[in-house]
TrEMBL record:
GO BP, one annotated term: histidyl-tRNA aminoacylation
Residues holding L-histidine: D93, L94, T95, R123, Q137, D141, R303, Y307, Y308
Gene (UniProt): hisS
HAMAP family: His_tRNA_synth (MF_00127)
Family the entry assigns: Belongs to the class-II aminoacyl-tRNA synthetase family.
Chain residue ranges for the region called Disordered: 1-24
Enzyme Commission code(s) on record: 6.1.1.21
SUPFAM superfamilies registered for this protein in UniProt: Class II aaRS ABD-related (SSF52954), Class II aaRS and biotin synthetases (SSF55681)
Domain of life: Bacteria
Protein name: Histidine--tRNA ligase
Catalytic activity line of the entry: tRNA(His) + L-histidine + ATP = L-histidyl-tRNA(His) + AMP + diphosphate + H(+)
Length: 494
């Protein structure tokens, strides 16, 4: 195809667009996510966990969770075939790579092996609001001990991480052994029926006890007339399940939940192991100073129970978040984890106990941006040196080097705009100060510095335009030798 006005082929111009489920990040978002990661990893290190970095790609058969029964394993993960015909995929979490690393290096690792990791993970799933295909996680895991106290320490670590980040969150804790023991004792052993029970319990917040009761039985018809088939439990089995999930009713303290569960499971011996685990977790949490307001036992938490083998925990964000339209936004879980004793066994054939927690850094950052606003998390720009003359560029760069050597960020304006536009540029960069060394300053050995934040604040107090021009709020001229200290004082007061 040729251009109608030329004999040369028309130039292809791709549409400028980002892939669905992948987001561009500017300085403010990067700074917020970096702050969260640095804060949380400092807590991990204080608890004695060591850093580990694994590659973004793993062999697809090492991931396991998302692999379909097909010749092209790219459902759930982003996969490609290497030149040796082996399939590789971008990691979908940081736990599967840990399991591979532990199996590969087990003989040389200290045991238990305590590691933390952070970085982007990738999900080949349908994107949606608050649901990206690339996001950042920050994990801590202990591999090689089956002690419930290891679970308690992971929970305490998560609580400390949220506290250090200044984020109000509540850890909800359950144990797969409890429900497994209850259902087995009730004769509910089929995986399909067990999953139907889990799905029913998961709707407790939305449907309440009456709705869950219907879904545990024959089924429920909603307001639109649509019918959802139930788990098909007998009436004699429904009551114990409801008593079980309601053990935390009324915001009960951990000790009271344990008492209630003890009554529910009194005639179901297989659930006693899970109850013993929770009791030991409670003892350790109390010793670690983790209160009932920070971590609670919640038997209705069932997400992930098909994956975890024991304790499971989920972090709920205790922030009222609203979007730009003022409508409530539910972010759901901003972190979670639990005990997974079967993952390493995929490689070795031997069960290796493990437990861990993952902070959803990207989701947490998105929630904080809604609550605090972009301005609260805005990244400060550098000190900007105004460019007056081509012939004085050497002097500008020399001053920039001096400022940087003093530990402050600085840049020389390298566009071709005038003074007014340069000041607007510095303002948009949220620069703490603009520095001017024009002809007068160079001749007199002085520097003119404008404190941009102070100037904005003072300008708000001046109603007369002439007074503003003459007063030049926030602007001072001082000897060159005093410039660095003055700039440090401005940056320090940010």
């Amino acid at each position: 195809m040729t251009d109608s006005t030329s004999d040369t082929p028309s130039e292809f111009r791709p549409e400028a667009r980002s892939p669905r489920g992948f987001a561009d990040k500017r300085a403010s978002q990067i700074a917020l996510e970096r702050r969260l990661v640095e804060t949380v990893t400092k807590v991990y290190e204080d608890f004695g966990f060591e850093a580990l970095q694994t590659p973004a790609f793993e062999y697809a058969d090492a991931l396991g969770k998302f692999l379909p029964d097909s010749d092209r394993p790219n459902v759930g993960v982003f996969a490609l075939q290497d030149d040796d015909d082996q399939w590789m995929a971008l990691r979908y979490d940081l736990t599967a790579p840990l399991a591979r690393f532990a199996a590969q290096n087990w003989d040389g690792l200290p045991k238990p092996f305590r590691r933390y990791a952070f970085g982007p993970v990738y999900r080949n799933e349908k994107p949606g609001p608050g649901r990206l295909r690339e996001f950042i996680q920050c994990d801590a895991d202990t591999v090689g001990t089956d002690r419930p106290e290891a679970d308690a320490e992971i929970i305490a670590l998560a609580v400390a991480g949220f506290k250090a980040a200044g984020v109000p969150a509540l850890l909800r804790i359950n144990n797969r052994k409890l429900l497994n023991g209850l259902l087995t004792s009730l004769g509910v052993t089929g995986p399909d029926q067990q999953m139907a029970v889990l799905r029913a319990i998961d709707k407790l917040d939305r449907l309440g006890v009456p709705g869950v009761e219907l879904l545990l039985g024959k089924g429920r018809k909603d307001d639109s007339g649509d019918f959802t088939k139930g788990a098909g439990l007998a009436d004699t089995a429904i009551r114990p399940v409801l008593d079980f999930v309601m053990a935390a009713e009324g915001g009960a303290a951990r000790s009271l939940v344990l008492q209630r569960l003890g009554h529910v499971l009194a005639n179901f011996p297989e659930g006693q192991a899970g109850l013993e685990d929770l009791t030991r977790i409670d003892t350790a949490l109390t010793a670690l100073g983790v209160s009932d307001s920070a971590a609670v036992f919640e038997p209705s938490i069932v997400r992930g129970l098909e994956y975890y083998t024991g304790a499971v925990f989920e972090a709920e964000l205790l922030l009222e978040t609203r979007d730009e339209k003022g409508e409530m936004v539910r972010f759901g879980s901003v972190g979670g984890g639990g005990r997974y004793d079967d993952l390493v066994a995929r490689f070795t054939g031997e069960r290796v106990p493990a437990t861990g927690f993952s902070f959803g850094v990207s989701r947490l950052a998105a929630a904080l941006r809604l609550v605090e606003g972009d301005k609260a998390n805005a990244a400060r720009g550098p000190i900007v040196i105004i460019n007056f003359s081509e012939s004085d560029m050497g002097a500008y760069f020399q001053l920039a080097a001096e400022i940087r050597a003093a530990g402050l960020a600085a840049e020389v304006y390298l566009g071709r705009s005038g003074m007014k536009a340069q000041m607007k540029y510095a303002d948009r960069r949220l620069s703490p100060a603009a520095v001017m060394i024009g002809g007068d300053e160079l001749n007199n050995g002085t520097v003119t510095i404008k404190d941009l934040d102070l100037g904005r604040d003072l300008a708000l107090q001046i109603s007369d335009n002439k007074a503003w021009r003459e007063g030049r709020p926030g602007q001072v001229t001082l000897p060159r030798a005093e410039a660095i200290n003055h700039l440090k004082s401005i940056v320090k007061n940010d």
